[in-house]
Amino acid sequence: MATRTAARYISRRLSTGGKVLSEEEKAAENVYIKKMEQEKLAKLARKGPQPDEKAAATGSGGSVTDAKPSGPDSTASKVSTDKYRNYGVVAGLVTAVGGLGWYLSSSSKKAEVVQD
Question: For the segment 36-45, what is each residue's pLDDT rounded down to a tens digit?
């Protein structure tokens, strides 16, 4: 509940550019936000439970061989397959290393100024 309120407050602030809304505008925006939340919930309900949730919903009557490993040695890969996200990570690392190199190389060129 608090998360939803915080999300509304933040989205309202970002969407209005910091402008103070009138009461009617706030009410209209609240109605719109609630409608969008209901549509998201309805969409999730149409999709149905996820495969992990189906296994949990069937109960604990399964055998030991039906259990999935949940430790760090499970077979699920946690490597991102999103090509553009991977490019973004590489670009960020290159930028950070370049900035650090530039900073370190520029500090050695400064000569000390002696003031009398």
Answer: 999 999 988 8
